[in-house]
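Support reply, case 0932

Customer input (verbatim):
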Amino acid sequence: MVEKSKLPSRHVSLGPKSAPHRSYYYAMGLNENQINQPFVGVATCWNESAPCNISLSRQAQSSKKGISDSSGTPREFTTITVTDGIAMGHEGMKSSLVSREVIADSIEVSMRGHCYDGLVGIAGCDKSLPGIMMSMLRLNVPSVFLYGGSILPGNFGGKEVTVQDVFEAVGEYDANKISEKELKCLEKVACPSAGSCGGQFTANTMACVAEAIGLSILGSSSIPAPFESRDEFAYKSGEVVMQLIHKQLKPRDIVTKDSLINAARVVACSGGSTNAALHLPAIANEIGIDFDLLDVTQIFKETPYIADLKPGGKYLAKHLFEIGGVPIILKSLLDGGYLNGDCMTVSGKTLAENLENIVHDSSTQKIVYSTSKPISKTGGVVGLQGNLAPDGAIVKVAGMRSLEFKGIARCFDSEEEAFEAVSKKNYAAGDVIVIRYEGPKGGPGMREMLATTAAIYGQGMGEKVALITDGRFSGATRGFCVGHISPEAAEGGLISIVKNGDEIYLNANTGEIELLISEAEIEQRKKNLKIKEHDFKSGALWKFSQLVGSARYGAVTHPGAKHETKNYSDI
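Our regenerated output:
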């Protein structure tokens, strides 16, 4: 058992000099024994912004009990989150990626300021998952990550539905395919419970990542948010973090290059969100590992697509839970030789040891295939490179019928301009819709484009056009939609010089993305280029635009562990 005198909380709890600190703890009802125990931060993103987050406080209470029953002293605090489903389709989405950094930073400063010895982090909506994981690796104190769980599917006309159906229904309404009354009926039933969006969108993708890299207890990610069994895992997370404190097994002992490769394979095999290609490099930055977009997409290319999950497939997180959850995906990959089973996890056992008694049998269910008989031989997400994206771009191919597209550029300098054109059907089959100045710096904030892509699909044009952007896409986006184009327009990337009528070639089989004009024309346009400036000259978005790096490296805002000379866990 670790001595309190060797933990960070010694600075606020031991010896005569800590008498003022202890007086605050007595004011909050702690006794002397509790003050002398390890202090464990229990950080949640609870708020009333969206259903993703409303169950997190409930689960935090169970985690706190697990800590208390294991001779620890829990200290609950909350951080912010921006819920993408609410922020989508307007200027609010510029705050989404910024929130990842705010979440990581705010947890870091709260943990540092109060000298906590360990951390249980509970997340709901998209950016809160990587944000909390980043803070754990940055602080490097014993930590357990817990996903708040997925929403249950709604029912509309006898069919299971999610919020993705509502976004696409807006396009159907614009195309006069459904009435406003039908749209209203759908919006009222699509999201019937607490929890994050139900497909293999960003939240569920990053929850899979948390299990794959070893920061979450095996099997904890797939349980829907309303189910009481979530609280059992929350309690267990509290117990486990205390075990980690006593063993001094820390996040950087668990998350390695090999575990990040495992995580990338899980994203690829499940047709997960393209946002993972942004978050995995950001997580790697926290531990000083080189692991960028091109590394991630190479792993995607080598990994079979085996999990038939929405938006590219048929099934939801609830259905995956019913057949055994994320461990079934992990076991299929391990059996096929696609995972490194020697990676350590928060259980104190390796990934292979955790999966030893898990059985994957593709003959008894239709959701997770074997790697020997996959849905497709390469992952559901692939990388592209070419003159339009020398530092890479990404596209989700899960569910796509054609992986090659040549079309005519239709250019927009903001998502609003593009959405207005789509709403008015001011585009045509064969167009490549170009949305630029939406990158990390140029947006600022690298917005997701779900409102636009869903409207295109709802209008029945999803297979007839392509869309490219230096911004991002929601995990719910489908169709030939290429995001994360890097360098971005604001950095003088080639996307900034594309003109209406230019030919663009995309090939997800060969990984090509090319602007089909001559080198001489490219050079001439570069000479005449005037980069558009954003309108945010103060506040958080300005600060983000000044600090943020390339999407290739995760759009991070600090140098990372490579530049550390001292870590919080060493104080």
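We compared this against your earlier run and they match. Two observations from our side: The chain has 21 helices and 14 strands. The CA atoms of residues 219 and 324 lie 8 Å apart. Please reopen the case if you see a mismatch on your end.
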